[in-house]
Amino acid sequence: MNKRxxxxxxxxxxxxxxxxxxxxxxxxxxxxxGTFVDHVYNVWEGSTKQGYSNxxxxxxxxxxxxxxFAGNGPTDNPLECYGNLEAKQYHPDYFVNNAGEELHWxxxxxxxxxxxxxxxxxxxxxxxxxxxxxxxxYSQNKRLDRFYPKFSRGYLSKLYNGQIKCNGWSYYxxxxxxxxxxxxxxxxxxxxxxxxxxxxxMGTDQEIDRRIVTSDIIVTFYKFASVGLEGYxxxxxxxxxxxxxxxxxxxxxxFTFEDAGISPRGIVGMxxxxxxxxDHAVTDASSDFASEGYHDGLCVYEILFPDSTWY
Amino acid sequence: MExxxxxxxxxxxxxxxxxxxxxxxxxxxxxxxxxxALGIRLxxxxxxxxxxxxxxxxxxxxxxxxxxxxxxxLIPLGLFCLLMGFSAFFFRAYxxxxxxxxxxxxxxxxxxxxxxxxGVAANFIPVLxxxxxxxxxxxxxxxxxxxxGIYSLIRYGFFYAALYKGMFYYYxxxxxxxxxxxxxxxxxxxxxxxxKYGCLASLLLGSSGAGLFALSPKKEGRKFLILAAxxxxxxxxxxxxPYLPAxxxxxxxxxxAGLYCLLRHLLRNDEKKRGVVQKVFVFIYFILIGIVTLxxxxxxxxxxxxxxxxxxxxxxxxxxxxxxxxFDAANDAVYNGAVNADLGRxxxxxxxxxxxxxxxxxxxxxxIFELNVLWQNGFLAFGLLCFVIFFAFKQGRDYLREGKExxxxxxxxxxxxxxxxxxxxxxxxxxxxxxxQQLSFFTQSNYMMVSFFxxxxxxxxxxxxxxxxxx
Lengths: 311, 471
Description:
The structure holds two protein chains of two kinds. By secondary structure, chain A is mainly beta. Chain A has a domain at 35-91 and 173-310. Chain A is 10% helix and 29% strand. Chain A contains five helices and twelve strands. Chain A has helices at residues 6-14, 48-52, 83-90, 138-142, 257-260; strands spanning 26-27, 55-60, 175-177, 182-185, 190-192, 195-204, 211-225, 228-244, 251-256, 267-279, 296-304, 309-310. In chain A, a hairpin with a 2-residue loop joins strand 7 and strand 8 (228-244). The longest helix of chain A is centred in the first third of the chain and has 9 residues, at 6-14. Chain B is mainly alpha-helical. A two-stranded antiparallel ribbon of chain B has the order 1-2. In chain B, strands 3-4 form a two-stranded antiparallel sheet. In chain B, helix 1 packs across helix 20 and helix 18 runs antiparallel to helix 19. Chain B is globular, with a radius of gyration of 23 Å. In chain B, 45% of the residues are buried. The model of chain B has no long low-confidence stretch (mean pLDDT 88). The chains are: A mainly beta, B mainly alpha. Chains A and B meet through strand 1 of A and helix 6, strand 1 and strand 2 of B.
């Protein structure tokens, strides 16, 4: 073999490498337009779709202690729809840092009474170093990309960055789901976790004032099995969420793995779907984004496996 | 006229080999940029202490009387180094009074002075072969380019800046354009930086290839091949991205070096024409000084006189957004912020020693490093920088014309210095980290130290006119 070509072969071999930094690219403005239905994210990564049809275990949790926690605002006052209050009531130890100091949820309209916002806000889509909030704000303390850097990359990185509210970032901050839902494979395998929580609200393209929308949320975790992925499903019926075309409030919705009867060890992916939508103000709203008319869609801001260990 | 012969005392005789080795080491490490910010601090300390030991080598060639004719450039250069370290801006940035801030500022001063002195001393160490010095300098840069280049190819692939222009990726929920970033070694880990900053090493390395114009591939095949290979690494690094500004600057210095060699060849026997060409260059030199002086004054006084901004408004209807930062920076430097500029209150401390009340939200960093010096270090440092630049141009010209080293070495050194100066004057980026807001000033980088080393190499201190003979 002519050895002069060896360096060239070396260079060419690099073009076969992973190129991970150019793998998931989007054109400018993708998922950032002003139209609600344009933002739907319905990607099912890897074989999560197959795993969704291969459910090994399913459990329905009712709302309350030893069930799931969620927002509990009355329909005439959606502003009180904070799921974190319920979570805190059942599990006060989830809302303290390692030093035992209280972790805040983050307040609307800027820092309030010495308690900080959920992020340091340099403006929509502008990076900020949020490390000063790590020991004071719940979501910043628990964000997944803090200790596991691979969660920092990709479109779904917005679900692991500690931003649990809009903060004026509009679609930058959230992921909009249609009734089809989404599925993702994690960059690590879960070794241990106490509970799962997500910061969500119900988005809409109807210009109607604040209201409550109720739906069933289905969270499915995936583990590797001999025949691909198999699902471990947790159904959360009748979750009340604040809904408005703008400035709705997010709610922390979640449950403990113990209450769900699932061992977190070996979880490599998850999906969220939802259904049985009841809009208490508009009867013809649909979460089928392909259909005509008004739409309500689940908006996910953050996915949390607080204090979890991954490998 | 008889020339003084260099002396060699016991110290220099005994330690010249080890000292030459240490210079090669430190310049290779500095050009590689080992250790990131901490590494730079260490190099500043080591560079300064090494430079102290270099003084006997310089003394062997100069007497105390020789100091006098060199004071006109030594004093401003020393003051410049001092003011590059100590400024109201850095005083504030390092947290005010305290040992830390004083040490950091002192190290900056000592580092620049030390690397300049090392460059000067390198000309006076007989055992230090210039060829090896060039290889150490380029070797450090090449190693950096190879390591980062391979990692970049693995992560992005070939020609990503062209293939994915206008494409974005998400990082921690924020969109970033992929075509304007590159990889860099930040300390001992890889990180993402702007291409402006990330291609500095490849620019320097690629520009050294200008020395090839003075080498014959047949007669000096080994030297030609080594220099071509090292410069090739720099060119390929920028080409595989591709980053056109760096390639354009390399092309410019190649054309410049090519023209220089051509003129040198054509005019080698024509003293008269050579004189004309030199006069043309001197004329251009003074025209440049005039333009820079007028432009600077217009920018500095714009907060009060509004000549430049009104001119821009008349042409474009407004001050273009990309240019506004220059006015903001000038207002910070002269008036300590736009509010004071509107009131016409000149702030003497900010004017002389740099913007004294910087905040995270008021960083008016421009892509012109000289303006950033004005903003960070004040008008005194800026004025001295202008002096240093024109001094460097003169030294560069004299070095190319009269330097004792081989022409390819002189060309490589001078063109590297020219390339980095021009590039930093248009493409400086003092906030290069993509996923962060950390500041990384060009003037405090390893490239600034390397630039001062290059300036030292090009500097040929004058000798007193009185002739002495030392046997």
